[in-house]
Amino acid sequence: MRLSLLTAGGMLGGTALAVKYMHDEVGGMEALNRTVSFYSLAIPKYIQYRTHMFLDSPDETWDQLDKETSQQGLDKILSLRGFYIKSGQMVATNIGNGFPPIWQETFSVLQDGCPHKPFEVVRAIIESEYGKPLEQVFTSFEEIPIGAASIGQVHRATLHNGQEVVVKIMYPEVEDLFRGDVRTIKMFAQVAQPVHVPPLEEVEKQFMTEFDYVQEAKQMEQVRINLEKAGLAGKNKLAVVPKAYMDFCTKRVLVMEELKGEKLPDAIQRDVEQYAKKAGMAVDEFKLQEEMKVRELKKQGKDTIGPSAAEFDAYIKLETAKNKAQNISARLYNYTVGWIPGFQKKEYVSNKTLPLNYAKLIDDLIMIHGHEVLVDGYFNGDCHPGNILMMNSKKQLGLIDYGQVKKLSKEERLRMCRLILALADDDKKEIIDIMKESGFRSKAMNEDVIYKFAKVSYDEDNEDLTDGQHIQLFMESLQAKDPIDTIPENYIMVGRTSVMLRGFAHALRQSRSIAKAWAPIAQKVLDSEQ
To answer: Where is each ABC1 atypical kinase-like domain found (predicted)?
Structure first.
């Protein structure tokens, strides 16, 4: 009996101490409640996935598990919001090609479709920041937001000088929530996925810079100036970056030029709908068919990359000609037979139905971000598709959201140029030497681990490199072989940019070697600056 009481007392005392530690570690009772809510789903699902890996369960079992878990994960994210939405956006981007299509599809709503807060909350934030009524700042302000994400929402408005703008509003509670959420995920990673702890620590630092919209506005202006100077952004260029109206920016309100376009995920979804319509299928049926095609090609050891930029161009020209012919026919009909009572007029075909050139889209994004990293040393580390617009002309990309801009020193930038060239040439010795020089450290400094880590982080993650393993298992195998101690913090965000671009490319069946794409830029920089 006494032993039972001692045991019970010890358990209760231990539990109390554990709760006290967790309370202090994640930042208060609300953060603790959020942590418990996260773990209530994460731990059982982690065990479930590990069990199926051990049992080598069939594809059908995995498909059903992914379908159930992705929806449960989305529900949990939408209930918790905060950093979990940002994490979900990474899943939607399919970073490192690490998630099955059902995850990407389920989480795609997080790119810009998060639940928004009522207008009364928005008004209160604006009037608190400006110290005056909203009407004294804006002549009009749309109450329904055009988008909502992890830390706030965006509204259309008009300034008193007649300038049409978009206004980003930051929720007042998000900074504290983010801090607790990142700590929670780091604690989980320390046990389940240690290889992700250093990147999470750097991501935490970068996310903390998102909570000052004046700083973000300055960063956006600098990127805009850099890209316009390089001829990559501006009128009739590859991209456009919105202008910030600095006089109206505060810590929690950012006012900027409105770009006329739609979110890239929405444009791609409409594209898929058009392809499905032409094939006479429902969208889900069409997606499943395409997924099965890719699986079959992989089984046969064949290339799964989609059409090239030139092939897309040829197809788009053909569709343009078809649309033109159809519209001429419709016009002739409508102005002749169409005037006769009882005859229905024919509809015209909009150029919005023209397909996107996925290959050029990916190549342009990779080139722009390569310039930011290697030439300017000043780059956006959060280039997920939700932060990209397809402009109405379909000839330009709109680049938005500059809360996570990273700056490299000249030494870091030139070293990254050398690393990119070594990766492009697959010069293993040079790759290892540069990684060591940059400050990368692992417990045993196993050269094979260093080489593979560099390839996956900054270049590519094909099945030849990962030995056919899922990317998560591959990274865990590297960690088991030689635990990674230190990753140069300024290069973590370069790696994040690389895998984010590649994840988007994978999703569009446009896989790329980032190093080979960036090599000409790197060589030009070294030739001119060394």
So the answer is: 110-275, 336-433
